[in-house]
Amino acid sequence: QVQVGQSRGGLVQPGGSLTLSCEASGFRFKNYNIGWFRQAPGKEREGVSCFASGDNSTYYAHSVKGRFTISRDNAKNLVYLQMNSLQPEDTGVYYCATREYYNPTYYCQWVQEQYDYWGQGTQVTVSS
């Protein structure tokens, strides 16, 4: 059974940085995609970024491109979302999600239906 755990979020001032981590375990195969999503108050959940394990491909939504970075620590089995230059509109609950694949995957999308296992979500608040 795949399980997804997330680190705590926090309160950050505008312009600040925060790193979230996601630990997915219990994979039967070594191929998976990781997606990061967020849900602002009163809004629908939206995709932010995703990672494909086959070649470490990463993709970013226009709203976060150039500010957010996904990286992986194989030794610790963690995927990070480094968030820089945070703005109040980045406030929301952030979710990590994953789907495993039998074959290596070299492409991902931040489409919720393409992910099977979800973390518990963590609050990120950007405010002065």
Q: Care to describe what's here?
A:
The chain has 128 residues and is mostly beta strands. It is 0% helix and 50% strand. It is built from no helices and eleven strands. The chain has strands at residues 3-6, 10-12, 18-25, 31-39, 46-52, 57-60, 68-73, 78-83, 92-101, 117-118, 122-126. Strands 2, 4, 5, 6, 9, 10 and 11 form a seven-stranded mixed beta sheet that branches. A four-stranded antiparallel beta sheet has the order 1-3-8-7, with no helix packed on it. The radius of gyration is 14 Å and the shape is globular. It starts with a strand and ends with a strand.
Can you tag this structure with a few keywords?
11 strands, globular, 4-stranded antiparallel β-sheet, mainly beta, 128 residues, 7-stranded mixed β-sheet
Low-confidence stretches: none
The biggest sheet, with number of strands, parallel, antiparallel or mixed sense and barrel status, is: 7 strands, mixed
Task: Report the structural category.
Answer: mainly beta
Q: Please state the CA-atom Rg, rounded to the nearest Å.
A: 14 Å
Q: Please provide the ordered H/E string of secondary-structure elements.
A: EEEEEEEEEEE
Please identify the oligomeric state.
Answer: single chain
Number of strands: 11
Roughly what fraction of the amino acids lie in strands?
over 45%
Task: Tell the overall outline.
Answer: globular
- The helix content, as a percent range, equals under 10%
Number of helices: 0
Distance between the termini: 41 Å
- The average pLDDT value, as a whole number, equals 93
